[in-house]
Amino acid sequence: MSDIWPLIPAAIYLLFFFMLVMIALVTLSVTEGDLFPTFEPLQAILKNTEFYDALINTLIFVIIGTPLELIAGLFAALLVYNSFWGKTFIRSVFVIPFAFPGLVIATLLFILFDSQGGFANHLLQGQYSFFPKVIDHDVAWRGNKFLALSVSMLGKVWRDMPISMLIILSGLNSIEPELIDAAKTMGAGFRARLTKIILPLVFPAMTTVLLLRSVEMWKEFIFPYILAGNYPLLGTLIEKLYGFGSEPGEAAVVALILVGLTVLTLILIVEITGRIKRELVNSGVNS
Length: 287
Prior knowledge:
Layout: H1 8-31, H2 40-46, H3 49-81, H4 87-95, H5 102-112, H6 119-124, H7 145-173, H8 177-185, H9 190-218, H10 222-227, H11 234-244, H12 248-286
Helix pairs in contact: 1-12, 2-12, 3-7, 3-9, 5-7, 7-9, 9-12, 11-12
């Protein structure tokens, strides 16, 4: 308990403002500017086909993007975990994306993947001697749902990869080197060391990455707003309803749904990772 009490003031502070926001959202979602409760905003959202499109797009973002962030962070962490010449330089390179605001990276990708004159189209059309010609005409990157969401997701994963890498790297650094040395002495190869020692011991850090990155994927705004404006996610739909549609009640309903789905995802991740952890512990004991 003595280790937890310094965190209590911060927890109270965050909980207080979270409750204020939730009360404001609930009030706005059932009043629509009137003094009397109404379910018109909820009914309007349930009849809005754009909401279901945004929900599906966000689900795709979460289901694919969250594991990608974990894999990218794990790969980078394993790469810089080993000792080699230039390790500090490589680690610094991996951290560079986090030094730039998301808006800057999204704008850069907007320019690189411009439908006319963008670097990606020039590259694929063979206008650079070091790359062969792949296409004959410009690709409308932002005019295609799959391409627009893919570019948005890759930009998000690349920008946030350093956070995942640092979290997993902290877990790797907590592993006693004697365990790895003993496994090597007993003839265990890299695959055996990875599956029997490294991954089970770093699993709590991987769980943290999944929890944090899933929240980020659910509430992502900048990259899909800049790069996939015609294919909204829930986050960008809230902005459209509130800022451009002048429908604050409907925007509040979508925000509440977004919060609920985020909390449900966190519960599922905790439950699933808890079962996996128990399986890893049991397999380790049995082996």
